[in-house]
TrEMBL record:
Taxonomic lineage: Bacteria, Bacillati, Bacillota, Bacilli, Bacillales
Gene3D superfamilies per UniProt: 3.30.470.10, D-amino Acid Aminotransferase, subunit A, domain 2
Coiled-coil ranges from the UniProt annotation: none
CDD domains reported in the protein's UniProt record: D-AAT_like
NCBIfam families hit by this protein: D_amino_aminoT
EC number(s) on file: 2.6.1.21
Name of the protein described by the UniProt record: D-alanine aminotransferase
Reactions that this protein is recorded to catalyse: D-alanine + 2-oxoglutarate = D-glutamate + pyruvate
Pfam families the UniProt entry points to: Aminotran_4
Gene name of the record: dat
Subunit structure: Homodimer.
Molecular function in Gene Ontology: D-alanine-2-oxoglutarate aminotransferase activity
């Protein structure tokens, strides 16, 4: 098993994390997870843009430019002979004595590894149960940072309640979920939170927004009140791993009649079509 560390590809067994890596001590870093279908990186350009944007926002300098990183990640996929799975990429500010402010003369540490495996998407096919919880996270969740404790605690709460996802509510308004974005459909209009500092602008979210027209849905990027979410005809979540995940229950209440809705189903079909169109046949 090989991994990418800065500009080099090395055996995973020969790599260790320095105890003074700021990612390890402060969560001072960023990441991306990118799906690979038939050896092809899905929506790579969008993930690359978001990684470099996160880095800019935190003033972390990535040692490679976009072309070099693309080349190295593709090399890693080839070496690992990855067909279907994902690539995880992480960049931390680097290794330094433990001080809070940015240390001087430190180089960032980029690591990437691949994971083989096709997801079965059982939950997405059966419908997802969610709970709601207060959004206690900081106000820059548009940055895909390693600080995920608010998300971890929310997901754990969902799991303990027998649900699969936790929906965040901030000041009575639905923002996103612990590891996904959320959409609600009412009378042919598809609502989702605008891409500002209160949500991560998911790559899957952006793809689904492009697909709305194909299923005759209108887009309305405005936050939903929790009460409005309960009353939606259909609700679905999106993320890289799950793609379009229809929600059938929120806080124990059925969404619509409790079955997966037609729009959600059609969006899943369109999403699969898009994947099929980018992978070599
Ligand atoms: N919001 C949060 C908090 C997430 O962790 C994720 C998954 N990374 C998403 C939204 C969805 O993002 P994407 O579609 O890029 O996976």
């Amino acid at each position: 098993m090989y991994i990418l560390v800065n500009e080099g590809i090395i055996p995973r067994s020969s790599f260790s994390v320095d105890i003074e890596d700021r990612g390890y001590q402060f969560g001072d870093g960023i990441y991306e997870m990118v799906k690979v279908f038939e050896g092809v990186l899905f929506e790579w350009e969008a993930h690359l843009q978001r990684l470099f944007r996160s880095a800019r926002e935190l003033r972390i300098t990535i040692s490679m430019n976009k072309e070099e990183l693309t080349e190295q990640v593709q090399r890693l996929i080839a070496i690992e002979d990855l067909r279907d799975g994902y690539v995880y990429i992480q960049v931390t500010r680097g290794v330094a004595s433990r001080i809070h402010h940015f240390p001087e003369g430190v180089s960032s540490v980029l690591v990437a590894y691949t994971k083989e495996g096709k997801e079965e998407r059982k939950e997405e096919l059966a419908g997802i149960r969610v709970i709601t919880t207060e959004d206690i996270r900081w106000q820059r969740v548009d940055i895909k940072s390693l600080n995920l404790l608010g998300n971890v605690l929310a997901k754990q709460k969902a799991v303990e309640a027998g649900a699969q996802e936790a929906v965040f509510v901030r000041d009575g308004m639905v923002t996103e979920c612990s590891s996904s974005n959320i959409f609600g459909i009412k009378d042919g209009v598809c609502f989702t939170h605008p891409a500002n500092h209160l949500i991560l602008n998911g790559i899957t979210r952006q793809v689904v927004i492009r697909l709305l027209e194909k299923v005759s849905l209108e887009l309305e990027e405005s936050p939903m009140k929790l009460e409005a979410l309960y009353g939606m005809d259909e609700v679905f979540i999106t993320n890289t791993g799950q793609e379009v995940g229809p929600v059938i229950e929120i806080d124990g209440r059925k969404v619509g009649n409790g079955d997966i809705g037609v729009y959600s189903r059609n969006l899943s079909i369109e999403f699969q079509r898009l994947i099929d169109s980018v992978v070599p046949s």
